[in-house]
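FW: tagging you since you asked about this chain on Friday. Here's the raw sequence from the shared folder, copied in full. Didn't touch anything.
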Amino acid sequence: YAPVVTWASVRMLLIVAKIHKLESKSIDFVLAFPQADLDVPVYMELPAGVTPLEVEDPNRKQYVLRLNKSLYGLKQAGHNWFEKLRNGLTDRGFIQSQVDPCVFFKDECIVLTYVDDCIILGKQMRIVDSVIDSLRTGSEDFELTDEGSIDKYLGVKIDDIDENSFEMSQPFLIRRIIEFLGLEENKNKGRDTPVGKPLLNKNLDGCPRKHLWLYRGAVGMMSYLCNSVRPDIQMAVHQTARFSMSPMRSHELAIMRIGRYLLNSLDKGIVYKVDKTKGLEVYSDADFAGNWANADTDNADSVLSRTGFVICYANCPIVWCSKLQTEIALSTAEAEYIALSHALREAIPLQNLTKEINCIFPLHIPTTDFCLTVHEDNNSAIAMAESIKFTPRTKHIAIKYHHFRSRVKCTYNPKGDIHVKYIPTGLQMADIFTKPVDDRTFFKLRELLCGW
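HL: got it, structure written out here
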């Protein structure tokens, strides 16, 4: 097992870098896996064209090679490399995060690792350079290249706008998707929204596909795009991904609609406008049994509710999600409560990450106890979260959805660090992740989420 840094950690630390005006650099380790030693003896057959001296070809299979270093393709190669890098950083005084194992802290410096790509943040450039020089000249014999300032990371383009804002985008991936779908900028008409009604179903009696491009390939590229820099297409992409096994013409048209929507926003991404006065906030919503349709009444999945949430820090989205719930909710309140629980399952670890970062770079938090604010547009779900009792209508809900109740701030628990607040549906940013919304609402929520 070799962990990789999460997008939530990357976004969070880029926001912290903007708040504290931190210096940054990215480094790339050259042929990382072969730099790591093997933890167990590994042998391999002789490659084609390689024959031991004084040995005839019929006997060459009697010989094997013993590896001195890891090779790409070994199942333990990634783990061995991460252990070498982790030991190298801890030997230099870095402390590994308890929340994200790919984040390392030291006085006035933070390092993020993604296999052989690293981001180094520091209070001053000399601190960043000293870490790079230490890795390059250390006893581990790390071979690395200094990539300079962070303008691109994991295929994502990062552009500074001003001292309080920056943009993350993937124009090259968007153009690749459009070309993959056979669309052209000047010939095909774009769409204003990525998804419309009704929602997709299996459509087993519908028309077969028309185009020859690989459906799963399009879904895969769009999934990476929506999870990295385009939350506005998250719900649209997720519903198309459900039918990757046997897509029909209706599913293909849904993919094409997303592609036409991307035609109108080729160079767009997500704009982060850092607001130092805001802390960690969660917007959670659900669409109760929104998949039910007359054409798919015999399918139990058609009555599953959809969860949508977005987690923000300093008014900047760092995690977003749109997915079907795994249990059938019996009421709107129950669907909203399950969505709230799922959102907090992601938010609580991020709350702990902010506490770790605060030890290195003090964060601007409105409250001194790192209170987590949750915005919910269903009063019944709020009442369920704040109540210590199980009522006849809520006692059947699985215990896994009540994991956060002991931390909710309410009359019987005034010191709770999770504050659930009501928010009008019109201001609920998570509404865009639960169902197709009208054009006016979509543009308004996209402005709140993506900044354009």
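FW: The chain has a mean pLDDT of 86.
HL: agreed, and DSSP finds ten helices and 17 strands in the chain.
FW: great, closing this out.
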